[in-house]
Amino acid sequence: xxxxxxxxxxxxxxxxxxxxxxxxxxxxxxxxxxxxxxxxxxxxxxxxxxxxxxxxxxxxxxxxxxxxxxxxxxxxxxxxxxxxxxxxxxxxxxxxxxxxxxxxxxxxxxxxxxxxxxxxxxxxxxxxxxxxxxxxxxxxxxxxxxxxxxxxxxxxxxxxxxxxxxxxxxxxxxxxxxxxxxxxxxxxxxxxxxxxxxxxxxxxxxxxxxxxxxxxxxxxxxxxxxxxxxxxxxxxxxxxxxxxxxxxxxxxxxxxxxxxxxxxxxxxxxxxxxxxxxxxxxxxxxxxxxxxxxxxxxxxxxxxxxxxxxxxxxxxxxxxxxxxxxx
Amino acid sequence: xxxxxxxxxxxxxxxxxxxxxxxxxxxxxxxxxxxxxxxxxxxxxxxxxxxxxxxxxxxxxxxxxxxxxxxxxxxxxxxxxxxxxxxxxxxxxxxxxxxxxxxxxxxxxxxxxxxxxxxxxxxxxxxxxxxxxxxxxxxxxxxxxxxxxxxxxxxxxxxxxxxxxxxxxxxxxxxxxxxxxxxxxxxxxxxxxxxxxxxxxxxxxxxxxxxxxxxxxxxxxxxxxxxxxxxxxxxxxxxxxxxxxxxxxxxxxxxxxxxxxxxxxxxxxxxxxxxxxxxxxxxxxxxxxxxxx
Lengths: 327, 293
Known about the structure:
The complex is a heterodimer.
Chain A: H1 2-22, H2 26-50, H3 58-75, H4 80-102, H5 107-127, H6 129-132, E1 138-139, E2 145-146, E3 149-150, H7 154-176, H8 179-189, H9 191-196, H10 201-227, E4 229-230, H11 237-250, H12 255-271, H13 279-293, H14 297-312
Antiparallel strand pairs in A: 1-4, 2-3
Helix pairs in contact in A: 1-7, 2-7, 2-10, 2-11, 2-12, 3-4, 3-5, 3-10, 4-10, 7-10, 11-12, 11-13
Chain B: H1 3-34, H2 41-58, H3 63-86, H4 94-116, E1 132-134, E2 137-139, H5 141-163, H6 165-175, H7 177-182, H8 187-213, H9 220-233, H10 240-259, H11 265-279
Antiparallel strand pairs in B: 1-2
Helix pairs in contact in B: 1-5, 1-6, 1-8, 1-9, 1-10, 2-3, 2-4, 2-8, 2-9, 3-8, 5-6, 5-8, 6-8, 9-10, 9-11, 10-11
């Protein structure tokens, strides 16, 4: 546990000092996005990596958070912090209620049902034009502010977003190492076996679904208040797939892996400007290659590859078995 | 009230429903042979339309030659997909299979965009666009083409599954893969066949609907999901109940769009999908099965 804390401390320090290396500039905006995407992929990872339940509708919860915050502040003039808290609570409750029927489903059916849910939410954003501004989006969302400091620059937003993200990392690490985390992994491996040893699998799955959705809503609110403009296009099916890609690339069930996946997928398009339109090819290809050849994600796959390379040195060039099964 | 109007909605709903039925049967065939829900199913529908356009416009083939070429090319795509993405995975978990087929679907979509661009294209109708009056409503010749071709394909399907050795072997795989293997059926070949059949059917669906709805690189997603919805209504059967599922969905959607709001047309299918998955996951017509652990 102490080692964990040390690791987290180093990570937090790295994040806090990172802006010094970049001295503002366009990259800061991108790093704000890295923070938001880290939150989202941790949220999805809690559900997918720990509890083994897939969701293809998480962009919808992200969007609900953003729109609830956006509409309450821009249209009704609420306090941004209050609307952010309310958005998180509302989305949490909605996810909890919908979790009971939806998490009865497994595997492919769960994937399809969450996908359907995400698309319904997306359609509602587009169609309730009076409320959300429809496809052309909602603008004029105020920045968050505290004690007279308004979070209106990239640097300020960076710290704002990353403080939330780091708290989320800490919470998730804690959760993963707790009794609940172990119960979740038991549900992942075999729901029946978990129930036999006294884990209330059904309730647990619903609870983690609600926590995951709440995190998404928080990220959504932060997104709305830092960007000050939102439109439905950011919350569609493609973004759900992007989140899935982040989690899978980084490593299912690894919190730091989620950060790695989020950072890679957010920074990659910035460096491949020319390939911007074709990012879906990259997502698709990465998803397939990772699941086929590195199902543990980069966090486990890279050390594994390294060990294999060490082993094969000196020995006859034996072909190693591909596709290592992970727990 | 406007009986004519209702008839009109129902008629156009039937033809989109027929498309959903074809796609849904494609889902069911693969599901029954492999236990996989192929999220890339919709992309073969898109490929059908886009490839037809490619053969028509760039290679200047006449329509009667372009269509079989497009179906053949899309089927090759299906074979490649099975070979490269599905077969290498032996003991994959359902979640990994979901991720792989989603990855495949996005990849195919991206490649189509790379090859043919982002524009929406129109394909000329097979035989003119003179509306035909039926009762107080009118239908386009293309609607009749869709219904006719769907009926023919379903008949061929029926014949294949019940009167040929390979079709019967496929059904055996659907009941129990291991037992099918034990009596000498090459299960892996049947899996490949299931991809061949469903990608070909998907492509046909994409081709016959293209003159009505236009075609672009990203039409596959929505059509695929609607097809899945039809398959769920039909309880994942590759027979008549999925056809009924498609038709019910098509008509409800068309009525909903006409009577309630066209903006929410797509939402209707997903609300039906969610309700069915919550309340009757075995389909509208099926009996509940106990689940194996």
